[in-house]
Amino acid sequence: MIGTELALMLRRRRVWLCWALLCLLPTVVAVLLATTRLAPPPGSGGAFLSAVLSDGQLFPAAALALVLPVFLPITVAIVSGDAVAGEASAGMLRYLLVRPVGRLRLLVAKLVSVAAFTLLAVVFVTVTSYVVGVLAFGVGPGAEIGGAGTITSLSGATLTPLQLVGRTAGTVGYLALCMLTLGAVGIFFSTLTDSPLAAALGVLAVVVTSAALQPLDAAEAVRTFLPTQHWLAWIDLFRDPPLLDAVRTGVEVQLGWIVVAFGAAWANFTTKDVTS
Amino acid sequence: MVPASSRTPGRPALSRRALLVGAGAAALVAAGSVAWPAGATSAPGPAALRDLVLASARRPYTGVAEASGRLGLPELPQLEQATALFTRTTRIRAFHAGPDRWRVDELTPAGERDTYHLGDTETLWDFGSGRLTRVTGSTSLRLPRAADLLPPDLARRILAAAAADPVTALPARRVAGRSAVGLRVTPVDPDTTVAHVDVWADAPTGLPLRVEVAGRADPGRPVLISELTSVDLTAPADDVLTPVLPPGGTAAEVRAVDLTGALRVLGPAAPPARLADRDRRPRYPDLPGVGVYGPGLSGFVLVPLTGRVAAQAVQGASGAGAVPIEVPTGRAVGVSTPLLSVAVRAGGRRGALLVGTVSPDVLARAVTELAGQPR
Known about the structure:
The complex is a heterodimer.
Chain A lengths: L1 H10 L1 H24 L22 H9 L3 H11 L3 H5 L3 H6 L4 H35 L3 H6 L4 E2 L5 E2 L1 H32 L3 H18 L6 H4 L21 H25 L7
Antiparallel strand pairs in A: 1-2
Helix pairs in contact in A: 1-7, 2-3, 2-4, 2-7, 3-7, 4-7, 4-9, 4-10, 7-9, 7-12, 9-10, 9-12
Chain B lengths: L10 H23 L12 H9 L6 E9 L10 H8 L1 E10 L2 E8 L2 E8 L2 E6 L4 E6 L14 H11 L5 E9 L2 E8 L8 E9 L5 E8 L8 E9 L17 E6 L3 H8 L7 E2 L2 E4 L9 E3 L6 E7 H13 L3 E3 L5 E6 L4 E7 L2 E7 L3 H13 L3
Parallel strand pairs in B: 6-12
Antiparallel strand pairs in B: 1-2, 1-11, 2-3, 3-4, 4-5, 5-6, 7-8, 8-9, 9-10, 10-11, 13-14, 14-15, 15-16, 16-20, 17-18, 18-19, 19-20
Keywords (chain A): Membrane, Transmembrane, Transmembrane helix
Organism (chain A): Pseudonocardia dioxanivorans (strain ATCC 55486 / DSM 44775 / JCM 13855 / CB1190)
Protein name (chain A): ABC transporter membrane protein
C-alpha cells in the first residue's frame, strides 16, 4: 500500500512541478544576487542572505529560509490536500476502499507519501541551491583553507565539512518534520471535504493564522503551540556550539501537531460514509 | 456507498474517536503549559537569599535567556540597538566562567553579535559584518548591551542598587527546569517609578534565573522580564571563551569611547551637590559634569549636553509629544515611560539630559533647579 502510494506520488506531474518551482525560486534569487552583487545589509533580509556573496556554500541555508515561509507550505498544502479529497473528487475513493485494506492503513500510506514529498522537497532545494550557490558565488575563504564544505558559523568559528554535512542533514530533517505537520493537517482537511482545493486552502489558513498570532503579545499563552513559531529554530544549528533547545521544543510541538491532526483524520475518515 | 463499519455505522463511533483525539490534544497542551511544582527546597529567608544572589558572581554557568522589554522607549537615532533591548524580546546565550571570563551572544534570526570578555580585554564578533573587533581601554559609563539583561547580571545590579529597600519572600517556582526560590524588592521611595522587582534564584547556589521589573503605572504587568530558559551550572569549555577570526573575516582594534575627553571638551559646570531633594552620589568622578542623584531604584543621572544637541533633542521630543516644563531660562521638556522618565533642557551654549527611575515631577523639579543655577 505504501509502495503504491509512493509510486503514485512520483508519477504525478504536479508533484514534480512543485519540486521544480521550489528549486527555481532560490535559483532566481542567486542569479539576481550574483549579477547585481546587491545583498541585503547585514542583520536584515532573510537568514544568511547577506553572507552568501562571500561564500556560496551558505546558499542552501539561505535558500531554505527563502522558501520556508510561503512556497514550501503552499506545495505541501497542495499535495496533502489532494491526498484523500483528490481520490474522492475523481470518484476513486469508494473503489479504493473496496479493496481489503483498512482505512487506517490507507491514511498511514497517505501520510508516508506526504512525508516523502516534504523530505524530497527539502533535499532537492538543499542540493540544487548548494550547486547553484557554489557556481554563482564560489566557495568562501574557509573552503580555500579547510577544503570544500568548510564554512564560517554564525558564531565565527569554522565548521568542518563533516560538521556542515551533519548540521545540514539536521536542518533537512527538522524542516521536513515542520512541513509534515502541515501535511498531517492537510490530510485531516482532506478527509473533511471532497475538494482538494478547499483542503489546501484550509492548510494555508492555518499557516496564515499562526503567522498572524505569532507577534501578538496577547497570544503569548499559545505562542509555543503555534506551528510556525519554531520554523526558524534550525538556524541555531549553524551556531557554535550548536544550540539545540529551540530545535528540541520545535520537534516536540511539531510531533504533537502531527499526532493530533493525524488522529483527527483517523477519527473522521474511519467513521465516514464514503459516497465518492 | 462504502459504510465505515458494519458493526457501528455513523455517529456514535465518530464521537468516541473524536473525543479520544480531543482528549489527547488537551493532554498534550496541558503537558506543554502546566507549571510544574517547584519541589521541596531548603529555602533561605529573603535577606539571606539577597546575600546569596549578590555573592553568586563567581558561579559558572552556561545558559540561554530571553529578555522581554515593554518600556515604550522611542526609536533614537544611532541608539536603535540599545533601545531595542528594552522594547523587544532578545535571545541571549551566556558562557560564564567567572566575572572576568565570559562570553555572551545576542542571537538574532539573521546572525549573532557576540561579546568575549577575558580579563581587561573585550572582543566583539558580528556575523553580519564578518568583523572581529578588539576593544582596548575601558570606560566607566557605556550603553546597555545584551549581557546586562541576563538574569544573573540584572538581578545582582538591581539588588546591589536597592540594598536599603526591604525584601519579602515569594513562592518558589520552577525556572529552566530547576527549583527557584523568590524574593521581592519593594522600593520605599514614593517617587520611584518601580513598583517592585521580583527575583527567582537557584536555591542552593543563589544564581538568579528570572527577574521581573514592574512599574507603578501597572504593577500587575511587568515591563521587563528576563529568564534563563535553560541553564547548566558547569563551567564552559575554554575554547568557547576564545574569540577566533574566521577565514575572510575582518579584524579591527578600537579604543573604548573616551567619554571623559568628550565631556571635558564641553567644559561643563560641576554638577550640583543636591538636586530635587536628592544628594549627589560619588559615582563616575572621572566624568566631568555627570552626576548621579538619589539612592538605588529611585535615582536619576544628569548628563551634560552641548547646546546644539540639547536644542535638537528638545525640538525632537516636543514633536513626539513630550510635555513642556516651565524653566526660568531656556526650554525644557519631559518624557515619561512606564519605567524611565527623561527630561531635557536647552538654553545657551549648554544643555542637560536627566534620566532616571523617578516620577516625571522629580525630573521637572531638578530641571527647574538646574535652569535657575548660575552656569
